[in-house]
Every structure is written in structure tokens, then in C-alpha cells.
Design brief:
It is a single chain. By secondary structure, the chain is of the alpha/beta class. It folds into 2 domains: 153 residues, Nucleotidyltransferase, domain 5 (2-Layer Sandwich); 111 residues, no CATH class. The chain has 9 helices and 15 strands. The protein is globular and about 60 Å long.
Length: 304
């Protein structure tokens, strides 16, 4: 098992465990659960006790469910919200600028008497107005040698979309947009729900979409301001909106595809006139970037 490690990607709403071959990054076994840190944190709030024990008991159960004999000395690395104030243990954020080689990121080696394995817990990165946990590890895996010499903006669509600016090998800025979450709330629970109808899979009104993109460019966006409500709670700072200007000044726009939002983001980039500077990373490589970033950090912290 020295040639393998356990990769844990633990988000707010989801959990993913992988047994990975180091040399090839091949996923040998995988288990996915909807028990993200939020669910386990709620369980701890209800029942009390040692919070770390609740999380590590769940992790131990998931490792056992892989159905593979896992030796006690296997390397385990955990990234995502597990290092937040609702996770296993809260770790301090690294600050900007942040090197995409992983140097300067806070990684804590942890052993617990009730958990049979040691593990590496990866912290996040904060700016004056925003925070990321998980995307910093993904960026270590996504960034290439060319990003050491250029300015790029990485677009990571999702429930809370992240736009991350990388300049000459360093993350210098990032902004969170509550795109997916806000869309879900407005389209299903607000007064707008009666005015919104989801089209069929074969219908896309690109003319209407293009018009909406151009309209949004002319108006200030509320999406990152809304996430600022959360970051103010964490950092006691106000949020800022500069993302459109990031797009104007960057050398490359890197669209990290992964789901059905990809076509819309690609179209928006073209409508805004940045298509000639855009490159796409496919779903397979986006998924692999988390594992690649985790392995880089294992090696960097002399755990290999």
C-alpha cells in the first residue's frame, strides 16, 4: 500500500473517498456519500461529545466500506471543508498571495487515539474579503508550468462558483459567486418561481441567454455580495466586486468544465468577447486535479 494513498474530498454537502495509485493517479476504489461536513456538524450539535470523534468515526466506517484491506500506515490526505469551523478541526487560513506549488499552505498532521490512521488535514486560503477551502488544493493540481509566467483566471462553476486569479505562479485574488445556490432559491422558493420554467434537454434559447449576459455586464452583480454575508461572519470584512476587470486584464481564461453548466459559461465568455483567450479543462482532468493537488502536498510535507 506504500504505492497508494487515500484521498478524501470533504465538502459542505458531499463526501468522496478514493484509494489512489500514486504513480498513475488511477482511482482503484471510490465511495461517494451525501454526508458532507454540514450533516455531521449538525449531528454533533444535537448530541454533543467530541466533534473530532464523530467525524473520524464516520471516516473509519467509509474506509471499511471500500472493501479493501487498508494498512495502518497508509497515507491519508483530507481537503475541503473538513478544516473549517464546522469540520473535523478548524485550521488557520493561508493568506494571499499563495504559491500554486503549495508552499505556504497550512497542512496539519493529525493522530487520534480512536482513529487507526494518521492523516494530513489541509487548510484553505483567505483574502481580505473572501475564503476558499478545497479550491486551493484543486488549483495546485490544475495549474501548469505556463501559469508560472502569465496571468490567468480560473473559472470553477458550482453552487458557489469561484473565479481565481493566478499571476506568475501565485494566486493573487479570488471571488465567490453564489450562482447555483441563488438560482435554486429564486427559481423554486421565491416570487419568481411562477415566472420561471425549466426547458427540456433539447431546448436552449441562446438569443435570450446572450441578451442576459450583456445585460448583467452593464449592472453590478449581487452574487458575490451575497456570499460576503458568510465571509463577513468569518473574517469581519466587507466584500468587493472586481471580477469583470479580472477578465479584461488576464492573458488566459481557464474554464474548468465539470457539469452541464459548462456550455453556458463557454457561451458567456464568447459573448463577452474573451473567446480568443479562453481554454477549457475537461471534466476528467478537473476531477483528477484534486487528487493531483493532494499528492503534491503529501510530497511537499515529506509524507511520501
Amino acid at each position: 500500500m506504500k504505492d497508494n494513498f487515500l484521498s478524501v474530498d470533504w465538502g459542505t454537502s458531499n463526501f468522496r473517498l478514493r484509494l489512489v495509485e500514486k504513480s498513475s493517479l488511477h482511482v482503484m476504489k471510490e465511495l461517494v456519500s451525501s454526508f458532507g461536513v454540514k450533516a455531521l456538524y449538525s449531528e454533533w450539535q444535537q448530541h454533543g461529545g467530541d466533534r473530532e470523534c464523530i467525524f473520524l468515526h464516520f471516516l473509519k466506517q467509509q474506509i471499511e466500506q471500500l472493501g479493501v484491506d487498508i494498512p495502518a500506515d497508509i497515507e491519508i490526505v483530507i481537503s475541503g471543508m473538513a478544516s473549517s469551523n464546522i469540520g473535523i478541526r478548524e485550521l488557520p487560513y493561508a493568506s494571499l498571495p499563495f504559491n500554486i506549488d503549495g508552499k505556504g499552505l497550512y497542512v496539519e498532521s493529525i493522530k487520534h487515539s480512536l482513529f487507526p490512521y494518521g492523516f494530513q488535514l489541509i487548510s484553505g486560503v483567505c483574502s481580505d474579503s473572501d475564503v476558499i477551502r478545497g479550491e486551493e488544493t484543486q488549483m495546485i493540481g490544475l495549474a501548469g508550468k505556463e501559469d508560472l509566467y502569465r496571468k490567468s483566471i480560473f473559472i470553477l462553476p458550482g453552487t458557489h462558483s469561484k473565479h481565481i486569479v493566478c499571476e506568475n505562479g501565485k494566486i493573487t485574488r479570488f471571488t465567490t459567486f453564489m450562482t447555483g445556490e441563488l438560482f435554486q432559491v429564486l427559481s423554486t422558493h421565491s416570487i419568481l418561481k411562477s415566472s420561471v420554467e425549466k426547458p427540456g434537454p433539447d431546448f436552449t434559447d441562446w438569443e435570450a441567454f446572450d441578451d442576459a449576459v450583456l445585460t448583467s455586464r452593464a449592472r453590478p452583480s449581487i452574487l458575490s455580495s451575497l456570499f460576503g454575508i458568510r465571509t463577513r461572519d468569518i473574517l469581519n470584512k466587507k466584500s468587493s466586486m472586481e471580477n469583470y476587470y479580472y477578465l479584461i486584464s488576464c492573458d488566459k481564461i481557464v474554464l474548468c468544465a465539470g457539469d452541464n453548466l459548462y456550455d453556458f459559461y463557454k457561451r458567456a465568455i464568447q459573448v463577452l468577447g474573451f473567446g480568443d483567450r479562453a481554454i477549457e479543462i475537461d471534466e476528467k482532468n478537473v476531477e483528477a486535479s484534486i487528487i493531483k493537488g493532494q499528492l503534491t502536498l503529501l510530497k511537499l510535507n515529506n509524507v511520501d
